[in-house]
Amino acid sequence: MRSDNKKWFPLNIGRKNQEASNGCSCGKPSGSCGGHTQEVKKDGFEQVFDVKMDRRSAFKQLAASLAIGAGAVSTSCSMFSGEDSKEKAQIDWEEQFKGNYKLMTDEEKQATVDRLVRSYQLRTGKTINMSAKNAEEDVLFGYAFNISKCQGYMDCVSACVEENNQDRNSQMQYIRIHEMKDGKGFNFNEADDNYYHEVPAEGHFYMGTQCFHCDNPPCVNVCPVQATWREDDGLVVVDYDWCVGCRYCMAACPYDGRRFNWSKPEVPEEEINKNQHYLGNRLRKKGVMEKCTFCVQRSRAGKNPACVEACPTGARIFGNLLDPNSTIRWVLENKKVFRLKEDLGTEPKFWYFMD
Amino acid sequence: MRRLKVFKSLVRDSLDTITHGSKKYHLWMAALTFIMLVGMYCYSIQLDQGLSVTGMTDRVSWGLYISNFTFLVGVAAAAVMLVMPTYVLKDIDFKQAVLIGEGLAVAALIMCLAFVIADMGGPSVLWHMIPGIGVFNFPNSMLTWDVLVLNGYLFLNLTIPFYILFRHYQGKKSKRSVYVPGAFISVFWAVAIHLVTAFLYQGLQARPFWNNALLGPRFLASAFAAGPALIILVLAIIRTYTSFKVEDKTIKKIAMVVTVAAQINLIMLISELFKEFYAPTHHSESAYYLFFGLHGKDALLPWIWTAISLNVLATILLTFHKLRNNFKVLFFACLILFIGIWIEKGFGLIVPGFIPGPYGKIAEYTPTGIEIGVTLGIWALGAFVFTILAKTAIGIEIGKLRYKK
């Protein structure tokens, strides 16, 4: 995204520099990201093992990983276990010590995706389809929400849960629909985001929130291990395997856009969406963050996110902000749009408007 | 080679010291061990089932662990109030107190690290945070700063007393040229650990309750009240139960430090309250929730008012020389001040940051039994570590432990 292309949305407050426009995909706002020059030829696995380290840090690493590795090693070395369990152990080992997805080359990304697909096959006998598709050139995703049209049916919420394999036990939902009283303005304090009655309710209107995929995301800055970052097409994503679960990003998000897996997420086998993306709806584990990715597995394949497709009233509009003929551009140019908490300098790519 | 031999002998001697003692001592250590075991059992449940066994939710995502972590950073930082006069200004009074203070800092830092690890969703991938083999998001993330300063401070507080004790163990004097520079660094470092920890919260534009410029300075003031207050209590206990001599003069001097810090803390509290309640804005809602409750939700009310009453009472008691110089009153004041600040800088600070949520949702937080179990276990761990360190240090300082050639 070049700054001379941006004619319409950014106010550019709070953006620290234009490093991102130099084609660096890591989204780190200052300096070089350290992952593009020296690590180009390395596999994610090698990122860990090919590092020069002194005895002290090597020992630390070994100690930290011994407990997890021990099981895998004993299985893979055993004469008696079958080929399958050896392969499983090999995959577990490599997955445990792979590097940060953001810093991987395309081949490494594909390698970890292949491992995950194979692992799932070994475990369940079923095949999933997982993508490692990168951001496309000249694409910047944006979203608009028509407050006049939303009737609070929450079809978007169910579609999102099904599409993104969210934990069914804790009823995790990325989208919250706030039911607001007419005549009170946008008063979130008196809104109800957990209603169970027939909609549209008399004297109320509805407003949806989710991750706004900020252009200057506070969550990305605070992550101690760069497990969350902004992709080139503007999506703010999480590497579930790199996240350490400190929940600092959750405290930093002003939009309630992030969710945590407080226990092991469970999705019934028959309900699993097998069309997955590494950064999107692949199955998560306990103790990691997750969030809306504008359905990266769909949006990068040229489709609308599940919530947009499911909305029965057409209140949700999604598209490429860099395409002058897209609907989203038409909305931004012809409607009176606004964003939430603009004073915080986060530059959300999620606009609201009314007919 | 010789040093290694001395070190070996020191380890053997200190092992000997910490495994021998009065009946009371053994009872104390046994009780701590039991609490630690219970804490470990609770933690194993948490590891198995995930953080869902705690009271934390997506709405209030930090709780008892991070509260205790925040408070204990303050306790650790307080050791510096004693380091400065002793090592640098040659104020002999504090000499005995300093080793105790640094031992306290080590124990507090170990507790801090334990609390952070207990709060992690994926402790098995913590190596992602080790610079070199992981990805260390420095200098963007304040958490990485905190990792650096806390570990650095731990290193300083381990090495300086170790050097001094190691020399004394051999019957030699410790060289000023070695430990004074270290003491100087640790003075600045102590301020840094507290300020950086405050910045962890202060830098979040999403949470107006924390996003205020007074947070850091107030952290310092309350830390320099609570930390030395704890040191006074510990010295009182050590004075009663061991032959280690702590003079009245030393305790009175530390009490002075506590008093001034407690007074500054109260002034800052008043400034904060004025800002929140004179012209309340949308951003004052967390303070409203904390002090008065919002929409009938008022779980923190009894806590914060207890904390404020304790703080005010302790500060008044400390302010009058007559009362402060009466040790019974002083110890009582230190105890209630410590408890008051623990509440105020613990969940009185962390929990309201999340309430109301970004869109005004008020979901309250109550820690679960397992969370409390783990927390008590970590406190027991800290007390255990401190007892071991203090017992060895006292043994060396009173001359009971000496290297035999």
Question: Which characteristics define this entry?
Answer:
A: alpha/beta; Alpha-Beta Plaits; 2 domains; three-stranded mixed beta sheet; 10 helices; disordered N terminus; B: 405 residues; mainly alpha; Formate dehydrogenase/DMSO reductase fold; globular
Give a verbal description of the structure.
The complex is a heterodimer of chains A (355) and B (405). Chain A is α/β, with parallel strands linked by helices and 355 residues long. Chain A contains 10 helices and 11 strands. In chain A, the strands form 5 sheets. Chain A has a 3-stranded mixed sheet. In chain A, strands 1-8 form a two-stranded parallel sheet. In chain A, strands 3-4 form a two-stranded antiparallel ribbon. In chain A, helix 2 runs antiparallel to helix 3 and helix 3 crosses helix 4. The longest helix of chain A is centred in the first third of the chain and has 23 residues. The N terminus of chain A is likely disordered. With 405 residues, chain B is mostly helical. Chain B has a single domain, classed as Formate dehydrogenase/DMSO reductase domain (Formate dehydrogenase/DMSO reductase fold), CATH 1.20.1630.10. Chain B is built from 15 helices and no strands. Chain B is globular and about 70 Å long. At the A-B interface, helix 2, helix 6, helix 7 and strand 7 of A face helix 6 of B.
Instruction: Report how far apart the termini of chain B are.
Output: 14 Å
Specify the CATH class of the largest domain in chain A: Alpha Beta
Number of DSSP helical runs of chain A: 10
Q: Give the CA-CA distance, first to last residue of chain A.
A: 30 Å
Structural class category of chain B: mainly alpha
Structural class of chain A: alpha/beta
Order of helices and strands of chain A: HHHHEEHEEHEEHEEEHHEHE
